[in-house]
Every structure is written in C-alpha cells, then in structure tokens.
Amino acid sequence: MITAFICYRSKDSLLFHKTVSEISEFERSIRVLHESDPDENWKNNVLEKLQVADIVIFVLGEDTFESEHVMWEFQNAKKLDKPIIGLKKSSSPRKDLLLDQGYGVFTGIDDYFKTAISTTEY
What is the spatial distance between Cα 21 and Cα 43, in angstroms, rounded to a whole number? Predict the structure, then answer.
C-alpha cells in the first residue's frame, strides 16, 4: 500500500476533498494522510506523517505557496527526499514553485497517479 501525504491550504479544502475522492475512485490501495487542524503541535504531526509517506502531493490552488504552513511542508518534504508531485486545478497559476523546481504537476488524476506510483519504491 502506498501512503500519500497531501498538502493544501485550508481555503482550498474543497479541492482537497475532491482530490481525496478522486484518489479513492482511482486507486483504493493508497492511504491518504494530511493535517487539517494546525495547532501548537502541527509541525511535529506533519513531520511524523511526512516521514512515513511514500509520496507528497500538493493540491495547487491559486496561491498555495503563499502559505507559511505549505512552504514549511514543502521544505521538509524536500529535506526528507520524498517524491513530490502537484495536482493543479484550472484556477491555479500557470507557473508555480513545483514546476520552477522541476517537480511534476498534473491536471488529470490518471496521469497524476501513474507518475505517483512509478516514482514510489516499495
């Protein structure tokens, strides 16, 4: 089973829930982790989840990387050398941090998961 940690801004929670629904429909053997209620321990909670994740997925809204929390998650996923991909919705900006740094960004769930699965070692 693949474990995916999904990062998103709280204002993009509808995109997040749609993404989780699409994941469930596409592939049932993927366990989804996320952190939805940041409290004083959110960094520790996220770090624990990032450590067990096989892949980190960013749900890209209009200004995803303007969030300090998302940026922290991105920096720590990179430090942990996790495979990172993004799921871009039509309202997302044309250029974003993930593309600028060479990570895959996808609009279709099929292409998205073919890449996620092929970049994950079992």
Answer: 26
